[in-house]
Amino acid sequence: MRPRVIVVGLGTMGAAAAWRLAARGADVVGLDRFAPPHRRGAHAGGTRIIRMAYMEGAAYVPLVRRAYPMWRDLEAATGRRLLTPSGALMLGPADLPAVAGSAEAAREHGLAHEVLDAAEVRRRFPAFTPGPDEVGVFEEAAGLLRPEAAIEAMLGLARDAGADLRTGAEVTGWWAGPEGVGVRTADGELRADRLVLAPGAWAGRLLDDLDLPLRVERRVQHYWRPADLSAYAPERFPVWIWDAPDGSTGYGIGAVDGAVKAAMHSGAGLVDPDLGADPATTAEADTMREWLASRVPDLAAAEWAGAVECLYTLTPDTDFVLGPHPAHANVAVACGFSGHGFKFAPVVGDVLADLTLAGGTEAPVGLFDPGRFRRGAFAGGVDR
């Protein structure tokens, strides 16, 4: 008999889980309080970066390496273009993470990359104006992803494989035991054999038993319309991440849908996911423009084309929460992707399918143990 699996949350990781589970023959019921893709989670904004020389840690490289062919498989299965190569340029002082972390990951895994001094960056990529003490790490394999289209593609394949995906279904609680699992909704209780919890910004509520010290924060993605948009075409203008000595980090993506993205990776203040993120302000656009002025001056002088808000759900160590629930072998957990998880979506979906159907995975995900905070393994603290 096919195992019946409930997937709670159909955003990025829930959509991927529903797709991979249904593709393996599971009887999937997916639930989401909204109708993904939407603007109440981490995926809104039209584009996301995919890169392999991973500044967040070399341990991520095998996973993102595995993600690339899976993105291509998703494109082939749906006829949608989801991954556009552009290369990536990581900028800043040589000792800050964008440069140092990317170079270290590239060296450890033998990834093709180049270290460029400021003059070479300016020569090859004239839109950028690094200071004399800044350098760049260029990785040709990187590019951009289309998140909303990708979620639609994954959910479509899940439905085609027989998944029952229900939107407008808010999950208020769940239980698990030797006899199976169940979730509570306004329409009553659903029961199944196994459960995947991928609740995005609502993870802190639905997984309160894990004592996850999660922060839900607002991020603003700004879009700019320079006079010569063709100069920012992905084949001419790489995705980029730039660490500044003051601790700020900016990033950007070339021209897609008539505008260029340039935004900050940081934000301020906690957000109630039930209320969502406040709209961007002109003052925030002005602040972004000031940050760009000495780094990407042509964008700083460009017309502001608007902004899109999204929510980051952050862990204290910024590593993911992904694995089996420590108290329930028939429950798998995926949350806290800390603003850098989208590129891994197909792999995360496969890992969740492994955990749910096989009880384990060969993927190297020990770093993401959902029980690591409950056991007091992390010494830091956050506002809760």
Automatic annotation (TrEMBL):
It comes from the Bacteria. Transmembrane segments: none annotated. Keywords: FAD, Flavoprotein, Oxidoreductase. Its cofactor is FAD. It holds the Pfam family DAO. Residues 4-355 form the FAD dependent oxidoreductase domain. SUPFAM superfamilies: FAD-linked reductases, C-terminal domain, FAD/NAD(P)-binding domain. InterPro entries: 3-OH-isobutyrate_DH-rel_CS (IPR002204), FAD-dep_OxRdtase (IPR006076), FAD/NAD-bd_sf (IPR036188), MTOX (IPR045170). This is N-methyl-L-tryptophan oxidase. The gene is solA_2.
